[in-house]
Each structure stands twice: as structure tokens, then as C-alpha cells.
Amino acid sequence: MCVGSKSSCSKEELTYHHGFGNHFESEAYPGALPQGRNNPRIVPLGLYTEQLSGTAFTAPRNENRRTWLYRAQPSVSGTSNSFYACGGSDGTVSSSLPEIFGGADWSTDMKLDPNPMRWGATPLLRSGERVNFIQGVHTLLGSGDATCKSGIGIYVYAFNTNMSGSASGGEDLHMYNSDGDFLIVPQQEALWIQTEIGRLTVAPGEICVIPRGIVFTVNILNPENTAEDGSFARGYMMEIFRGHFMLPELGPIGSNGLANSRDFLHPTAHYESEDSQANKSCIIVNKFGQHLFQRSNPHSPYNVVAWHGNYLPYKYDLGRFCAVNSVTYDHPDPSIYTVLTAKGDENGTALADFVIFPPRVMATDQNTFRPPWFHRNVMTEFMGLIYGKYDAKKGKNGSGGFVPGGASLHSIMTPHGPDAASYDANVKNPCDEPTKFEGGLAFMFESSAMCKLSQYALNCEQRERDYASCWDGLDRAFPTRAE
Ligand SMILES: [Fe+2]
């Protein structure tokens, strides 16, 4: 059995398995894991065997993902309680959950707009109310169609109460996503995420991935932080409708660097051991073709006593990223900061990349412009800020404009780059010695897909409608600009 490690950020000490894409085995009760075979006729301790397939049975061996679960009751138990559409749209049962995940109907509510966009920090809507994770997600961008397993979704979330206990009747809410994998980037408040596979804490500065199909519950790690003072959990999410996130190739960098495999942490087996929890009726929510469906379940889904396999949720501390960059002149492309990638249709072109701009030493020479260059890209670039400032956006009065919890979008071939104030300041900066950028942690969801914007993205109060004016003042200096 793999030896796990303790997390430094947990309300109770959680144990994790280390290593990206590894095969692990884990048991929360001694002797629960069958030895020597996957599906014995007599399963230890009266458990049921269930395989969870994350790739087609026939996927190439190095891409094949599946996990064997040994559980007190199989997932099919309780499904005689049928799913019905959330939102009350079919008139059968009232629901506090939206009909469509993220609130945008992808067939009618999403619009194309090539303009550069920027948004302030995502607020908690419905102030004075308790909002759970599912209710607090807003679709910003989308491309493709989950039913065709093509494209991506980009979301923000803001919520102030746990999924546990927040169903209409006070039951616990649990969810699984038939559409794709979620990559969650907390910006404010640490999350306590329970899954069939085990439990994770995910704090700002960390990310987690919850693969397609795994039942999960998103709670707030320290709910007392969000009790009465109006504070709430906030963050970003990207969803991929096909494939899974992988580590990028390293090429000439060699066999180490960027996000190292050993730093990805997977939960260890955990089950509801108290009868009162294990047999508690709950609500299972299924995201299926972007629509939400719910059904009651007579027992907790968290009854996996042991498992083995390689289809698992995981988390990663962005502070562990080993950044590589130029030590002579110029910048490599920002792909040098890729943490995770998901394959696209073209060789070498990602459906989605998750890229960070971490604190790092800038060691280029005195004639290198250190912020990002002016740029037009074949990819869609969505950026967010976890804390601090971003070095290419000073704003007209030094206030920045690109704020923690906010976001920006530069779509395919939309020009962008440092704003006028940043450009001017950095042209004047002699850059005659290495400096350490420690001012913030920004990230980018980059995709080869052209994305449409939701009505929420286009019309919300935090959209900065004069964003593009930050490039006003980049006046013609040719041929007279002073050296
Ligand atoms: Fe760019």
C-alpha cells in the first residue's frame, strides 16, 4: 500500500497518496481490499464490487483510467428513486437548484463577442441568503457541446453555505458530473471536498480536479468564516467535455520541473462509519448535458471502504510549481508555465491548458521588456487572479483594474498586452539586475476552442465596460521616441 502524507491545511489530519496518474490502492478498514483479483465471488466483509471507468475500456494503456470500488452498497442501490429535472421545470417536485448548471442555457443564452473583456471580483448574489456551491456557480464562457463530448466551460463561483444539509428538505446534497472533468481554483476560503474516493481540503493557492462521474460534495473548510459577516467562498472552474487533464510534455527541459508528479495528492479511502450518517437519506444531483437532475437516495454515497486504481480526484499546491524561464534575454511563450493540459484535436494543440504566473525571479538582461508582449493568439485566453497584482496591468491610476477574484478574456486573435501605464513604466525600467516578482498569483485557462459568453458574463455589474481604454495612450512614437 502506498504511504501517504499529511496535509498542512486540514480541519482534521487527512492522508494523501502522492504521484500523478499512478495506480494506488487504499483501504479504510483492514482486509476490505480483495487481493489477487478484482472481482471475487465472495467479497471481503460483505462489500460489493463496482468498477468506475474514466476512459473507454479499449483506451491505450498509458491513457486508460479506471478504479475498482469496494463499497457497502453499489451505486445502483437506490436508483429506483428516479431522477427528475431540477428547477421545477417539469412541475413534479420543487427544487432550490437551478435547471441548468451555471444558469446559462447553452442553446439560447450564449453569445459571441470578440471584444476584450474584464470583470471585477465575483460578488455573492442573493445577499442575506444562504447559497451553496451548486447554486453559486455562474457560467462565463462556453464552447462546444457536452452531449457531443466537445469543448469546455469556464465558470466562477461564490457561495456561503455547505452542500451538506442544504437541500430543500435539509438533506445533504451530493453531485456527480456526467459531462466532464472539473478543475477548481479557489480564490477565497478553503474548501472541504468529500468524494467517493476520499476527502480533500483545497485552499486558495491550491487546485483540485474532480474527474467525470465521481460523486462529490463541496463544503467550506471553516464555515465560521462565512457565518454572519457576509464573507463567502469564491473561485474559478474550468470543465473539459472530453479527455482528462495530463501533465505537459517537458521536452528539452528534461525529466523534472514545472509541476512535479510527486506533488499531486490523491485522497485515501474513507466511508461514513456512523450508522446515522451512512443510512441518512440524501439528494444525488447529476449534471447531465449541462442540465441538472436530482433524486433522493436512501443512504449516503460515501460508503467506499476500499479501492484501487488510477481514476481519482486530486489536488496540487501551486506553490510547488518549479518555474523555468530565460536567464539571458526574451521570454519563452507562457506555455512554459503550464501546470496541466488536456489534448485537443491537433497534434501539440491543447483543448485546455491550465497555466500559472507564479512568484519567480526575472533574470533577463537590461534590454528585455519584462511584462508580456503585445499579442494576438490562436487560442482563447481567460485569466484570473488568486491574490496580489499582475505585472502587465497597472491601470490608469495604478489601481490595476485586474483584481483578485476578477477575470479577463482575450478571445481568439483579439489583440491584447500590457496596458499603456505598464508599457510606459517598463520601457523606462533599466532592468539591469534580476528581480523577484512576488506581487501576485495569476493563472490562465487557455483553450483552442472559440468561446461564447453567457448573459451573466455580458451583463453582470462587475463587467468593466471600458476595459479596452487601458490601451488608449499607446500613441505613435515612430520615429522620434527617445531611447
Ligand atoms: Fe496572451
UniProtKB/TrEMBL annotation:
What the entry lists under Pfam families is as follows:
HgmA_C, HgmA_N
Q: Which UniProt keywords apply?
A: Dioxygenase, Iron, Metal-binding, Oxidoreductase, Phenylalanine catabolism, Tyrosine catabolism
Q: What class of enzyme is it?
A: oxidoreductase
- Gene Ontology terms, MF aspect: homogentisate 1,2-dioxygenase activity; metal ion binding
InterPro entries, from UniProt? HgmA_C, HgmA_N, Homogentis_dOase, RmlC-like_jellyroll, RmlC_Cupin_sf
Q: Which GO terms describe its cellular component?
A: cytoplasm
Q: In which pathway does it act?
A: Amino-acid degradation; L-phenylalanine degradation; acetoacetate and fumarate from L-phenylalanine: step 4/6
**Which residues bind Fe cation per the record?**
375, 381, 416
What are the binding positions for homogentisate in this chain? 390, 416
The superkingdom listed in its UniProt entry is Eukaryota
Q: Which residues form the Homogentisate 1,2-dioxygenase N-terminal domain?
A: 15-318
Any idea which residues are catalytic in this one?
A: 331 (proton acceptor)
List, for all copies, the residue spans of the domain called Homogentisate 1,2-dioxygenase C-terminal: 320-478
Needed cofactors, names only, are: Fe cation
The EC number of this protein is 1.13.11.5
Any single GO BP term = L-tyrosine catabolic process
Give the record's family classification: Belongs to the homogentisate dioxygenase family.
Protein name as catalogued: homogentisate 1,2-dioxygenase
* Organism of this sequence: Skeletonema marinoi
Q: What is the lineage of its organism?
A: Eukaryota, Sar, Stramenopiles, Ochrophyta, Bacillariophyta
